[in-house]
Amino acid sequence: MSMTKINWYPGHMKKTKDMMKENMPLIDIVLEVVDARIPISSRNPDIATFSKNKKRIIVINKADLVEKEEINQWRDYFLKHNDADEVLELSAETGFNMRKLYSIIDKVAAEKKERMMKKGLRKVNTRLMVAGIPNVGKSRLINRIVGKNSAGVGNMPGYTRGKQWIRIKEGLELLDTPGILWPKFEDERVGFNLAISGAIKDDILPIDDVACKLIDKMMKYGLKENLKSRYKLLEEDFEGVTGNVIENIAKRMQMIQKGGNLNVHQATLTLLRDYRAAKLGKFGLDRELLSQEAKNEK
Predict the structure, then answer these.
(1) Which of 10, 188, 203, 244 has its CA at a distance of 20 to 30 angstroms from the CA of residue 45?
(2) What residues have CB less than 8 Å from 34, skipping those under 6 apart?
C-alpha cells in the first residue's frame, strides 16, 4: 500500500507551519517532543529547520515504554548528528525526569539573563516553544511545565493574534500554540510505525497489515520468545506466513467467535494493544536505523 495515496498533510498543517515561522524570532528554547518507541518516525524535519540558531532540546517522551539502553543509543544518535543541544528522556505521563528538564531550562534562562544584563537590560524573559507531531505527549508535557499557578500574559504585539503566552514563572514564558505538524510519509516504514504505536487512528491503514508488520519487526529484533510467552505460542505456530501467527494467537488464547470460528480481529487488536502497553517488552520500532548507523561506522 502506498503512503502517498493518503492525505497526510491537511490545510491546517500549513497554517501551523506559517505560525511557527512567524513566532520563531521570539523563541529562545525549542523543546521537540518525540516518542521513545519511534524517535525518528515521530520527528518532523520542518521543526529542525525552523529552530536553527535556537537552543534545541529533544525530549524523548514515553521513556517508560523502552529499555534504558535503547534510549541511550538514541541520545548518542541525536547528539552525534547535531540534532539537539540537549537530549533528555522523560515521561510526561508519570513525571519521570521532569525536574531535570526544569534544571536545563533554568540554566538556559540564567545564561540569557546574564548576557542581556551585560547589555544593560534589567528585565529579561526567556521564551519556550514545545513542538512535535500529534500523540507524542506534547499537551501533557505543556501541562507539566505550565503547572496550576501559571497565568496568560496576552499576545505579543506585531505577531499572530490568538497565540497565548503563558507565564510559567518570573522571567519564563511559554508560547501555547494550538497547531500541530505531521511529518511527510513517503516512507512506508514511517506510516506503519506510527500506526503500530497508536500515533494515528487504527482505521488509517489496514489493521491486519499493521499487526503483521509488528510481528515481522519482533522476529527481526529477536523477540520471538516475547510472543511465545505472552500468547502461549509453540515453535510450530511460527511456520508459514506472518498472518498465520495472528491466527495461532487467536487459537492459543481461545478467541472464538459465535459459530466456533477463530476471532482473528480480536487477536489483531490484542496484539497492538499489548505492544502499546509494553506487555510485549519495552522496545522501539526504529531499531533498524541504529543498526544501519552502526554498519556505516565500520
Answers:
(1) 203
(2) 40, 42, 43, 58, 59, 60, 61, 132, 136
246-250 contacts: CB < 8 A, separation 24 or more? Answer: 246/208, 246/211, 246/212, 246/215, 246/271
User: Residue 11 pLDDT more than 80?
Assistant: no
CA dihedral of residues 294, 279, 253, 286 (deg, nearest 10): -30
Vertex 198: Cα angle to 268 and 228 (nearest 5): 40
pLDDT in tens, 176-188: 766 667 766 678 8
C-alpha cell of 199? Answer: 500515533
Kindly provide the b/e burial profile for residues 186-212, where b requires at least 16 CB atoms within 10 angstroms of the residue's own CB: eeebbbbbbbbbbbbeeeebebeebbb
Which of 6, 114, 131 is CA-nearest to residue 56?
131
Give residue-wise pLDDT tens across range 46-55: 888 888 889 9
Mode of pairing for the β-strands spanning 126-131 and 164-169: unpaired
Tell me how many degrees the CA angle 184-189-190 measures, rounded to the nearest 5: 35
For residue 124, how many other CB atoms are within 10 A of its CB?
16
CA distance 79 to 262: 48
DSSP H stretches of helix in the chain: 11-23, 45-50, 68-80, 98-118, 138-146, 188-197, 207-220, 224-231, 242-252, 264-276, 287-297
The 10 Å Cβ neighbour count of residue 294 is 10
Q: In this structure, what DSSP letter does residue 157 have?
A: T
Q: Which of 79, 110, 274 is nearest to 196 (CA)?
A: 274
Cell numbers given for 162? 490568538
